[in-house]
Amino acid sequence: xxxxxxxxxxxxASIDGEEILKGINLKIxxxxxxxxxxxxxxxxxxxxxxxxxxxxxxxTSGKIFLDGEDITELSADERAKKGLFLSFQYPSEITxxxxxxxxxxxxxxxxxxxxxxxxxxxxxxxxMKELDxxxxxxxxxxxxxxxxxxxxxAEILQMSVLEPKYAILDETDSGLDVNSIKIVGDNITRMKTxxxxxxxxxxxxxxxxxxxxxxxxxxxxxxxxxxxGKELAEDIENNGFNKYMQKMEAA
Length: 251
Fold this sequence. Notes:
CATH superfamily: P-loop containing nucleotide triphosphate hydrolases
Distance between the termini: 41 Å
Strand order of the largest sheet: 6-9-10-3-11-12
Low-confidence stretches: none
Number of domains: 1
Largest sheet: 6 strands, mixed
Helix content: 25-40%
Oligomer: single chain
Order of helices and strands: EEEHEEHEEHHEHEHEEEHH
Number of strands: 12
Number of helices: 8
Structural class: alpha/beta
Strand content: 25-35%
């Protein structure tokens, strides 16, 4: 029986001919929360995009497996239907499409169902209440005129509604005030179940005050250079990434 995990093996990827990922090996286990930390430019967001199948990035070698199935060549929508979800660092605005209509369409597509409007609105209302969101939010166009915090809550709302098997959260804490970070963090913790795996990508410790990761990974220059428990994140909070940068310079 295959292990229930999102597994990345010796992954190399580039954009516009420039290699960004230089041999990533990583396992996101079901039922666990993993944190991926690293300074700006280390390749964290590239990894998130490659995992989700963004066609702008080219996988030059290596494999991505979801519960034992090779998904390296699958499109983004095919990966989503298999249970993969990405919360974007910079979500796009979509004028003319309300949050409610978008989420119902996405839910029906990913879950391969056709939930009726009333049932879905009741579900959406409950999820928004958990996130302390105004019910009127569902009638707004996707990310149009949203503050940074509203965009991030909208991403977490999508995750909550779609209930993916593996969720990749790309710097969800970026641009949030303390109260918003707590709300987002508490809801991510609530969404952790024995049937889901979560990868939180960040270069700050602050969101980890509200989410206890089972494992922390450090990324530098397109590679995973260290792993450990929450104490590793605490060390980075106190001392930064200096020791990793010094090792790179020495090499």
